[in-house]
Predict the 3D structure of the following.
Amino acid sequence: DWTMSAYRAEMIRKIREQVGNERVICGLSGGVDSSVAAVLIHEAIGDQLTCIYVDHGLMRLGESEQVVGMFRDHYNIPLVHVDASDLFIDQLEGEADPEKKRKTIGRLFIEVFEAEAKKIAADGRGAPRFLAQGTLYPDVIESVSFSGGPSVTIKSHHNVGGLPERMHMKLVEPLRELFKDEVRALGRELGLPESFIGRHPFPGPGLAIRLPGGVTREKLDILRKADAIYLDEIRKAGLYDHIWQAFSVLLPVQTVGVMGDGRTYDRVLALRAVTSVDGMTADFFPFDMGFLGRTATRIINEVKGVNRVVYDVTSKPPGTIEWE
Ligand code: XMP
């Protein structure tokens, strides 16, 4: 559309003006925001841009491979893929407090990112002076205020703040004035595949905040398999684009079940799906019972370690979208 094509041209002009001949590094998260920012900046300054993908091992099934494949192979954008999953998972194993989990992930992310940035700075092409971020307008508003009450911070978002000051870098934030739907329009304008643009938002701390309690490889594995089935059923039912976000949460609770002639004692999986305009408020999605029954049966039959599935019917407020 014309608004976005004008916006794109204007952003490219501004990025070139801000950056000049300097190098830029950009942290890719695999989400739409940082991807759109990276493609836009690459269009403006070519290989003055280097992207860093810190793989924290908390992504969904096959997701890291898709992100790296798309950027490196399809777009030819210089990309460093750092597999830091052991570091992250080892430190999250004994950590059950949601805020501490977020803080740990944020701290490790900065450490790994900084170390990679130093390597890039030493590659003989000059130290990058700019850090690109896919910050959106809603990210800029850190705290949420409910109906005239005091302003309260609900959750710390690890992908905002901290990094640029520490690294003595200037920020490039081309999406700072945009809402999510506008970022998607810009992504389309830039030719990103529709399947990628239309993806549900995914939180920076990844699956760690969908595993109440400590994070282990075993729990991650169960959650990944179950979540892939849930999303597959949602796509098959033609519901994906009607939902803002859908995901599973593996509870640290075991319940008794029966399968065949045997007793089982396995974990509970909660399914969540919400509609929303901007993530600030949300309603639970009214699936029909047939869909929920079918999906629960598939998950319990196909995923070892889960013997009970429940559906979360909480809206936001009072619940948040994520469980942690
Ligand atoms: P909540 O759970 O606060 O989530 O209702 C609102 C939206 O934000 C996403 N979310 C995050 N995104 N880093 C992110 O990039 C985070 O730390 C984070 N925490 C929540 C959540 O998935 C939902 O879309």
Observations:
- Residues 36 and 187 are 5 Å apart (CA to CA).
- The domain at 216-311 is CATH 3.30.300.10 (GMP Synthetase; Chain A, domain 3).
